[in-house]
Structure formats: C-alpha cells, structure tokens
Design a protein that fits this description.
The complex is a heterodimer of chains A (418) and B (149).
Chain A: H1 6-10, H2 14-22, E1 27-28, H3 39-51, H4 62-82, E2 89-92, H5 95-107, E3 115-119, H6 125-136, E4 140-144, H7 154-160, E5 165-171, H8 183-193, E6 198-202, E7 224-228, E8 239-243, H9 245-249, E9 261-263, E10 270-271, H10 285-299, H11 303-322, E11 329-331, E12 344-349, H12 354-361, E13 366-367, E14 369-371, H13 376-381, E15 387-391, H14 398-416
Parallel strand pairs in A: 1-13, 3-4, 3-5, 5-6, 6-7
Antiparallel strand pairs in A: 2-8, 7-8, 9-10, 11-12, 12-15, 14-15
Chain B: H1 3-6, H2 9-16, E1 29-34, E2 41-48, E3 54-62, H3 65-78, H4 83-99, H5 124-145
Helix pairs in contact in B: 2-3, 3-5, 4-5
Classes of the chains: A alpha/beta (418), B alpha+beta (149).
The structure holds pyridoxal-5'-phosphate.
Amino acid sequence: MTSFDPLAFRNHFPAFAAMRDEGRDFHYLDSGASTLVAAPVIAAMADHDTRLRANVHRSVHYWAEQATQAFEAARDTLAAYFGTPRAEIVLTSGTTQALNIIAYGLSDGLQTGDEVLVAADNHHANIVSWQIHAAAKGATITPIALTPLGQIDEDALAAQLTDKVRIVALSHISNVTGWEVDLNKIGSMIRAKAPNAAIIVDGAQSACHWPLFETALPDLPIDFYACSAHKMFGPTGVGMFWGRSDLMENMPPLLGGGEMITNVSFDGTGFAQPPTRFEAGTPPITQAIGFGAAVGFLTGLDHRAIRAHEVTLAATLAATLAAQPPLDTTILGGADFSRDRAPLVSFAITGCHPHDICQLADRSGVAMRGGHHCAQPLMGHFGLLASTRASIAGYNTPDDMDAAINAIKDAINLLKGT
Amino acid sequence: MSSLDLYQRDLLRAAADASHAGRLPRPDGSATVNNPLCGDKITIDITLAPDNTLSAYTHETEACVLCQASAGLIGSTLEGATATLITETHQAVTQVLEQGSGTLPTQAKGFGIFAAVTDHTARHACVLMPFEALTQAVKDAQAKTGNSS
Ligand SMILES: Cc1ncc(COP(=O)(O)O)c(C=O)c1O
C-alpha cells in the first residue's frame, strides 16, 4: 500500500468541486488526451492576466518587464524539471508544433538515400511531420516493427540501423498501450549502430511523470524531446521541446516572423540563436506561465506513490475487463501492468464499437476516449480500426474503475441486446 | 437530449438490419469513405437502372451503431429512389442533425430517429458517412454508365 491519497489529491483540481456543485457524476478517465488543470495553474494564469498583462521581449515598461521575467521564469522551471540548460528549452504551442519544428529543421540536412526510421507505435504527430518534411528532401521513411504486444521489436530495429539512418523517431510512452521505451537501452543501441542518426522522442505521455525516470534529458542517449502542458495538469496551447544546442544551431526555423531574427532586410535576414529562432511571433505567454506553474506543481509530487496508485487502478480495470468471458475483450498491449507501463487501458470488445461504448458510458459520467487515438499504424498492427481508452491519473479512484466497468457492461448489454 | 434517447430500439434495429450488408458482384458504382476521427470505414456498391434510379445497394460497414443504422436505413428506404430523392434525403438528414428537425421525404421518414443525435455534434459524421459514400458511388456510376440525372 502507498500513502498516496487520491481524494486528497483531488483538492488540487477545482473541476471536482465544480462538478459536485453541478450535480454531475464525474469519472474522468481521459487524462491521456488532456489532464484536468491544477488550481495553482489556474491561479497563476489569472494573476498574470489580471496584473501583468503585456507582450514579452518588446516594450520597456514595468508590465512588459514583469511579463518577460515571468515568461522566462517558466522556461527556467521547465529546464530545472528536465535537467537541461535553459537555452535548450524551446516553447511551442504543443507537442505537434514542436515535432514539426524539429522535423523541418533536421530535414534540411537530408538527401535522397538517407533513411528516417519511425517507430510504428508513434502518434501521428511523430509520423506525419516526417512524411511531410523528410520525404520532401527525398529521404525514405521506414517504420520500426513492433512485437505482438505493440512494443518496439529490438531485433528488427537492430537490423535496420546503418550509417544511412539519419533520424530515428520514437515515442517514449505509447498513448494507446502505455508501454514505455527504455530510452537508455534503445538510444545506446541506435548510437552504436547508426552513428549519424539524431534521436527524436515524443514525450507527450511521459513528461507528466518525468521525475520517475530519475535522469536529466541531456544524460540520455537522445537528441530531442517534445511534450504538451495540457497533459501535465497545465493549460492547452503551450508545449515545448528540448534539443541539443549543437544540432539546433544548424536547424532552419519552420516559422518566420517577429522575435526570431537578428536583422531583416531585403538583401538577407539573419536568424536569432535558439531557442528564440524557433519562437516566432508573440508566444503563448499566459499559457507558458501556466505551464511553469504546472511543472512547479509536478515538482512537488511523490511520483512513485502516484504511479503505484495509478497502475494498481489500471491493472484492476484491465484484469476485470479481460476476465469477463462473454465480453470477448482484447486489452491492447496485454493486461500486464506490472512493469514499465503508464496507466492507459485501451481495449476492444468484439461487436461493440468504441464510439458507442463511450457514448453510452457518458450517461454515467464516465469520460473515456474511443477512436484510433491518432495512432492508425498501431491500430492496424492490432488489426483494429479503433479502440476504447480509459486513461488514469492520480485523482482517479477505485470508485471510478467500478463506474467504468459497470458502464462498459451496461453498454455491451444494450449493444448486444443481452 | 441524453444518450439514452440516442440508442433507441428503432435505431438498434436499423443497425442490426443486415439485409443490404456485403458487396455487389458487378456494381455500376462504388465508393469508400473513412471517418478521420475514428478510422471507421464504409464501402457502398450500387447499380443504377436505365431511368437512373437506385436498383441495387449494398454496404460493407466497419463502424459504430449510428453509421450502421444510417447505412441500413438507406437500404430499406432508398432502393428504387431517384438520384434527386437521394440528394434531398441527404440534405434533409443533415438538417435534422443540425436543427433537431427537418422535412424528410415521405419514404425517408425513418431517418427522423437521428434527431436524437443533434446535440452530439461529434457523432453527426457517423450518420452522414453512408450518404457521402452513396453520393460518391452514384457519381461513380453515372460517370461509368454515361447516365446523369
Ligand atoms: C503520444 C502523443 N504524441 C503527440 C500528441 C499530440 O499532442 P498535442 O495535440 O498536444 O500537440 C499526443 C496527444 O494526444 C500524444 O498522446
């Protein structure tokens, strides 16, 4: 047993009191899409917009100075959380924009004959961005094969690694199965066999519990890591990436505009150094300040205790669903949550469509996601078009699991007419 | 409107109606439509009579109950329909979804069950997917047979 108390943890999230006041059943099992927002985040954003609303890096008045300091303080908080130099943290609108900036910038150096390896369990953000930018340079995009459980097939990957591989795009934690990639192990293998490859990691599902990995990003054998605040108890509209400065130096910017230049003339324009080079235009200032507050909140948590709690719930849900013979249920990635796995329970029930299950579960206030989860190649690997996903966070309780199980059973009874 | 109203008996019955499920051996026109939100897929095969009416229709559907019901209802109500009636029904069903009511052609009154979907905007595409596929299949058939309405 852990000392973690999910009901006390709920006090950090105003949504619970608000739903109680509205008299709504509220079993939020969609944190893999977006977590709820923590109270300190809402407070920091409201305070900033109330007292210090101004653009950053421009004007010299008090409010602009304060806004700039708060914005840059958020960058400091992120750098401390991930253990990186502050100049290697680029603020973006989210993981998707981050991965597109990276893909565009790194693709500049690619040519015909170069290979881009993309793990087949990736979210579309880490697939399509390479298809757009790397393919335009003539590089070949090749999927990295998966095992039956949906994990990277290490033998297959080893056979794919050559001098020609210039990019390897990995997902740290699958947003469908929850399986975690051992970045030390896989990254070292890539470094040894494909020395010309830059390793890009989608961290959207792992950033919320970064302290669990007990390492600084630059100490891992990877080169870039991207994430979004809205999956970290923070606001929408902001995210970041970390990148090694020697690689970022040579990357052209995807977006041009204000702030990201040294000088502009019709004879030629100079680009600013990273991270500014990749932060064109007015950044999401209020959101970045909220992001800083979210990461400050995360820094103070006992991540081991939270993960133990979450995984216990996930294992119970998966085991209960898998043990219902009439349901004919497949748990994507298997029902074993005892190792290296985030609390995402994706399942498919023969004859019951995920959208119908989710719509019917919504009647009992059970919020789950049905669909392909922006991971169509992974769905294809499992022979499915779609699945239902219950994603669990620290504020979930055994009561939420009971509600989900009952709602799923009721949905099946209705859909199968039993 | 709650999702309780959404999954009424009539809708479940229409979804379970397999009488037009499958593929035609020699269709005049075919079309496949995917739902980008969930990856669902429907393939429709049709034949057109010389007077341009829908003489045969089948659907192969990997999708939710709403899409299946819509595809099933097309089979039970629109076989024999003219291309004009198909277009009118498509428009009327779109209106039913957007406004909760609309004037459905007499033959197509059954589509009124989808009024319950109005408040669930994310699901409108599920109901309309078979119509999109049917419209494309009709165009495909007209292009191949040289007929047009
Ligand atoms: C693994 C993974 N990568 C990328 C993304 C995209 O993140 P965003 O939509 O915040 O850009 C998500 C979000 O669903 C995700 O789960």
